[in-house]
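Tutorial, part two.
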Amino acid sequence: MLCKLHISQKFWANVEIKGQADCWEWKLSKTRKGYGQYRFNGVMMQTHRIAWALTNGDIPQGKLVCHKCDNPGCVNPLHLFLGTHFDNMADMVSKGRQIKGDIHPARMFKGKVVGSKNGRSKITEDDADQIRQLYSMGGIKQKELGEKFGINQRTVSTIVTGKNWNCQVTI
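Running the prediction step on this input gives:
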């Protein structure tokens, strides 16, 4: 019991705990996909799984710990639920995060779907072209463009510099 309490205290000390409805961000190491990772019982594990286990007990065989909030760095137990792979995919579809339509190879970059076919995209290829055109004319700031198109300034910056939404293929 003392060992589990010590592990629990050490784990939660590395979490930015906010209100019950807020995401609780893992403050230490994260994977490239944004999932927190922590050595637990000598094994590197994803932190949302550890948070579940510390709060609710063992994770049953064949179950995933899924995020209601879709934030991979969140370890708030109220944002987590147990489910199967099918449950996780159904959750993704219900939130509109799935790939949209048939994917042409030109819409793939390093194995990821890019452009408006990506389930998380907020703009279209035409919007990206319009952003580049408006910005090149001068007189409008990236922040203003972001507000106009419902995206943040950082995303506008990646569009106008060609780091993102640079696909010129029409499909």
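The chain has two domains: 2-94, 105-160. In part three we will examine how such features are distributed along the chain.
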